[in-house]
Amino acid sequence: MLAQSEGNYAEALQNYYEATRPEKDPYDRSFLLYNIGLIHTSNGEHTKALEYYFRALERNPFLPQAFNNMAVICHYAILEGDSEIAEAWFNQAAEYWKQAIALTPDNYIEARNWLKITKRFELE
């Protein structure tokens, strides 16, 4: 984690990949996979990041931060000029944020507001 916090993402990725090999506990493994996803997000590798967030959630479906990060990626992955695709990405973002909010109702205020404004989810 030190390498990641210092911005040395290549070293951090190597450390996380090595740590996942012997780790058998699904809960602990989920956090390693989540952290790999974080690094890929920071590097702008959103497809890889989504893959690792999905893998983390397969092992631990109670990671609201993974749902949130997936929603953020979808929210910003809008292709200009194609409103159909943009709408699909927005809807996917909404689904991920709903799951994050369901797990931690007091968090993700900005997401909650976006869901209300876009009428994608009635929260209250």
Structure description:
- The longest helix is centred in the C-terminal third of the chain and has 21 residues.
- By secondary structure, the chain is mainly α.
Helix % is over 70%
Q: Please count the helical segments.
A: 7
The share of residues in extended strands comes to under 5%
**Major sheet description:** none
Please state the CA-atom Rg, rounded to the nearest Å. 16 Å
Alpha-beta classification: mainly alpha
Principal-axis shape equals: globular
Mean pLDDT level? 88
Order of helices and strands: HHHHHHH
Q: Between the first and last Cα atoms, what is the distance in angstroms?
A: 38 Å
Beta strands, count: 0
- Poorly predicted tracts of residues: none
Keywords: TPR repeat
TPR repeats: 30-63
Organism: Rhynchospora breviuscula
InterPro entries: TPR-like_helical_dom_sf, TPR_rpt
Index terms:
124 residues; 0% strand
Secondary structure topology:
Blueprint: H1 2-5, H2 9-20, H3 26-42, H4 46-59, H5 64-76, H6 83-103, H7 109-117
Helix pairs in contact: 2-3, 3-4, 4-5, 5-6
Write a compact overview of the structure shown:
This protein is an all-alpha fold.
